[in-house]
Amino acid sequence: MSNEGSIFHWARDHRVHHKFSETHADPHNATRGFFFAHMGWLFVKKHPDVVKAGREIDLSDLFEDPVVMFQKKWDPYLSMYLCFIWPAQVAHYGWGENFWNALFVAGFLRYVLVLHNTWLVNSAAHLYGDHPYDTASYPAENSIVAFFSGGEGWHNWHHKYPYDYAASEFGGFAQYNPGKIIIDTLAFVGLAYNRKRATAAWEYGRARRDKDRAAGIPLPTVERRPWQQKSKDL
Questions:
Q1: Cβ partners under 8 Å of residue 39, min gap 6
Q2: SS3 (DSSP) at 5
Q3: 3-class SS at 177?
Q4: Could you give the 3-state DSSP secondary structure of residue 92?
Q5: Successive 10-residue mean pLDDT values, the chain, 234 residues
Q6: Cβ neighbours around 37 below 10 Å, total
Q7: Which residues contact 24 (CB under 8 A, 6 or more apart)?
Q8: Which of 21, 89, 105, 108 has a CA between 20 and 30 Å from the CA of residue 195?
């Protein structure tokens, strides 16, 4: 319903983004500026390094997933219908709303808002915020982005521990993250499984950082532009 491309292509670009974050091989490289990371990358030809990385990244599990391949086969027709027509039909036949009003509000307007909420994760959450888990990376903890994206703004943690299904240290109600609550609910009824957390890895990493700090060893950092907020450390 978000109509942001097929699961296959979205997962491919996301894997490349994580492996080559803030390099020429990153599809939405934040070092090229806010607008490029936000939406500009969709309007220009991909950098050759992005294309090369996309061809070389392992996608075998996606090819073996029947749901992913079914959606890929019917993309973009199925996504276009579910994004625009279906919400309008629900409003029209469900409670008598004018079909065209529903199409423009529940379809087009919702689509624009969802796109920008998603793009903020690539732009604002890579340029503004704190870096308590990895001071040497661009992705940041951004509570505003987390609010608008349903919990996806805790990006410093997410890039430090991409295998953590919660995408945040605390998740759930302790740290605004509806996404984790939804996954936990699905797990409760048997529709999600094999959830992995990185809290143990972080406790080990924090103890090692505290030891280095006590020894006077500085934390690694990356050079950021003056208008970006400086990193804060736990």
A1: 115, 119
A2: coil
A3: strand
A4: helix
A5: 94 97 96 96 96 97 97 95 98 97 98 97 96 93 96 96 95 88 96 96 92 86 63 47
A6: 26
A7: 47, 49, 50
A8: 21
Backbone φ and ψ for 64, nearest 5 degrees, come out as: -90, -5
* Structure-block tokens of residue 126: 């890579």
Query: How far is 147 from 173, CA to CA, in rounded Å?
Result: 12
Q: Which of 126, 170, 149, 130 is nearest to 33 (CA)?
A: 126
* CB-CB contact of 54 with 24 (8 Å): no
Compute CA distances 211 → 132, 136, 208, 217, 222, whole Å: 16, 18, 5, 9, 21
Integer Cα distance of 70 and 72 in angstroms: 5
Round to whole Å and give the CA distance between 129 and 136. 13
- Compute the distance between CA of residue 51 and CA of residue 234 in angstroms, rounded to an integer: 37
Q: What is the pTM of this model?
A: 0.89
Interatomic CA distance for residues 232 and 135, integer angstroms: 8
Query: Of 141, 145, 137, 138, nearest to 120 (Cα)?
Result: 145
Classify each residue of 55-84 as buried b or exposed e, where b means 16 or more C-beta atoms within 10 Å of its C-beta. eebeeeebeeeeebeeebeebeebbeeebb
| Residue at token pair 């919400």 | 87
Query: What is residue 171's predicted lDDT score, i.e. its pLDDT?
Result: 76
Angle at 150 between CA 147 and CA 152, to 5 degrees: 90
Tokens linked to 222: 């990356």
Count of CB atoms within 10 A of residue 166's CB?
25
Q: Is 186 helix (H, G, I), strand (E, B) or coil?
A: helix
